[in-house]
């Protein structure tokens, strides 16, 4: 197992820590309580769960949850395991919902016991899969907690038992005990057999006779061995002869292999020879094409300008900008000209009217209109008063006429003095009342005449007001139109001035169509620069081809020498092979 990395969150003194284990030996150095043991305890927790550890001692006191994520490798395969602790009212326990193992990039959510089973299977530890049991192998073979080793070493019986369990060899101890039992049983059976075979003297006599027979047989074997030695000598001679022939045969095989190699080399050299000749032809053809192309490119001249392509591009942009300004200003000019024509048609003779005189006329009319409106209001107010007087006088007349009618009846009491009306008194009262009625009627006639006169005057004033309103409206409509006319005329003059300035700012050297002139100039300059670039590439290509040709000539000569040398060596090899054929015939 190789540990790759570990992430510790809210475990003991660690809030968050990531440790990447380098290959080789890792040393955790620090004072007591600096967290060395926490890292090792976290590794054990991630692999095997709590075991004998207490969950409360692992989870940070101030945290509600914590977890450990361990990445490790076994037999080249990477694994990643996560275990989580969660604080509840009942205490701190493992959280199975946030515990898993990743195998081949696949996360498997497992319970705490299933996680331990999976880890023991991966590590091939022969241990119980009880989640409450710690790992003896890991605890004593890989990580031993502080002070725990002293306890193991102090008790020899416990030490031996622990080491056996840690390395999984407790079965051998059991086997030794079992073997001792078997030996004891064998000793018992041996004693029984000794009692059973008491006639050992007779057996010894038989053994002696057997030994004599063995001596005779050994003599026969010795004789046969000598014959075998003679045959072996003959065999060795034959083997030596075979070895000699094999050596020559091996040499012959080597020569045949050498012959094949030489033939292959000669064939390969000839192919290279043909290939180089073909390359010579290709290079010659390429040089001819380059020369033809160079002759065409030489005639492409640089246009008479000191500007670069970027300068010409900028000039084209400037000219296009000027053209756009001209188009925009001409469009504005046409639009304003059309507006002025419409205004001329609308205003007619008033087009030449002075704005100040129109303003004065408008002011005078508005003032006169105001006076007339005030006078009209006074007439209306006076008419209202006359209407009131008319009503009042008619009321008085009605009252007087009623009183006169009552006075006609003699014997009635006077409404004023409450005395009986006499004839003299009657005439006096009636005459007086009739005089008052007559006087009031004359006043009513005067009021009616004044009212009629006021009505005529009011009509006359209203007609004048309508005339003034119409004139004011006409002047009010004319003034903005005249003002618009003058404003647009001024704007038209500004635009025409701007157009003249734009025309005067244009470079006369670019002709009537500067964009076309500059675009053609840019194309010619681009063509020249491309031609220059191509000529440079052709010259570089020609230089490389000439270098290749020189190199190939040397290779060509070397290959010729190599072919001659290999053919000579091949001839010698064939001669030696013919000599081996003669030996074979012998």
> Kindly, what is the distance between the CA atoms of the first and last residues, rounded to a whole number of angstroms?
69 Å
Uncertain runs: none
Form type: elongated
Major beta sheet summary: 7 strands, antiparallel
Number of strands: 7
Given helix and strand content, the structural type is alpha+beta
Give average pLDDT, whole number: 74
User: How many DSSP H or I helices?
Assistant: 12
The ordered string of helix (H) and strand (E) elements is EEHHEEEEEHHHHHHHHHH
Radius of gyration from CA coordinates: 69 Å
Q: State the helicity in percent bands.
A: over 70%
- Proportion of strand residues: 5-15%
Structure description:
The protein has 586 residues and is α+β, with helices and mostly antiparallel strands. Among the domains are: 2-134, Rossmann fold, CATH 3.40.50.300; 349-505. Helices cover 73% and strands 9% of the residues. It contains 12 helices and 7 strands. It has helices at residues 36-48, 55-58, 112-123, 136-142, 148-154, 156-166, 170-196, 200-298, 309-347, 355-408, 423-505, 514-585, and strands at residues 2-11, 14-20, 65-74, 77-88, 91-94, 100-103, 106-109. Strands 1, 2, 3, 4, 5, 6 and 7 form a 7-stranded antiparallel β-sheet that branches. A hairpin with a 2-residue loop joins β3 and β4 (77-88). α4 (136-142) crosses α6, α8 packs antiparallel against α12 and α9 runs antiparallel to α11. The longest helix is centred in the middle third of the chain and has 99 residues, at 200-298. The mean pLDDT is 74.
